[in-house]
Amino acid sequence: MKHNKWIALLLIAALAITAMSIAAFAETADSQPETAAEDSAGSQTEAAASEDSASKSAHSGSKNSSGKSKSSEPENAVGKQAAKDAALKDAGIAADAAGKVKARISKLEDGSVIYKVSFTSGDLWYSYTIDAVSGEILDKTTQNAAEHEAAKAEHGKRSADDSSEKKSESGSSKNGSKHGSGSSKKHESGKKGGRKNSESSKSSSSAADANGTV
Question: Is 128 inside a domain boundary?
Fold first, then answer.
């Protein structure tokens, strides 16, 4: 009896262990799809973040490239501030004694790059042309500030008048071309009409001659 009881207990324990193993396996199988889905979602998120980062980098690179292409300033240029300082020093004027100091870069026909520096001090206007690489002063001009402003205004007015005149001439040329084309078409149409009338007249004359002969 004791022997049979031990065997029964062992069977029950074995069944319990088997049941627990089956339950654990089922839980593992259920969690695997969720883990795979989470891993897939995480991979997609990382890929999207990577693409977004690459897009931003490309956009930033495009901006930088565009900025470099727009600026004709050489890499070894002295810089606008150095050009301003050189012009003020040559004029013997302190920075705080001058009006707004303007500097712009320009490229000459021979390929050399220069700075055009201009400023006013008192009743005088100063203009300097400075080599962008060496910083050497190539040319300088001094003019009465009031006269400079008047000449500047006159130049602007002339430019506006020239632009308006060119537009007017362009409009007149277009209208003349249209008018000429229309007249040509009408003249050609008149020629065709005259030919048709002439041919009709000839046909009528031929018919009358035929009737008279009969």
Answer: yes
Please say whether the beta carbons of 87 and 126 come within 8 A. Answer: yes
d(CA 73, CA 135): 13
Flag whether 53 is in a domain: no
Is the residue at 88 inside a domain? yes
Place 139 in a pLDDT band, splitting at 50, 70 and 90. Answer: very high
Strands 102-107, 124-131: pairing is: unpaired
What average pLDDT does range 139-144 have in this prediction?
Answer: 94
Using DSSP, state whether 204 is helix, strand or coil.
helix
- Give the number of other Cβ atoms within 10 Å of residue 78's Cβ: 19
Q: How far apart are alpha carbons 173 and 179 in whole angstroms? A: 10
Tokens standing for 135?
């910083």
Q: Is the entire prediction scored with pTM above 0.85?
A: no
> Is residue 109 in a domain?
yes
- pLDDT tens profile 154-205: 888 887 777 777 777 776 666 655 555 555 555 565 555 556 555 555 545 5
Q: Which domain holds residue 108?
A: 80-144
Please name the residue that has the structure tokens 């008192």: 122
What's the full length of the chain, in residues? 214
Helix (H) or strand (E) holding 117: strand 113-121
Give the domain CATH number at 133.
Answer: 3.10.450.40
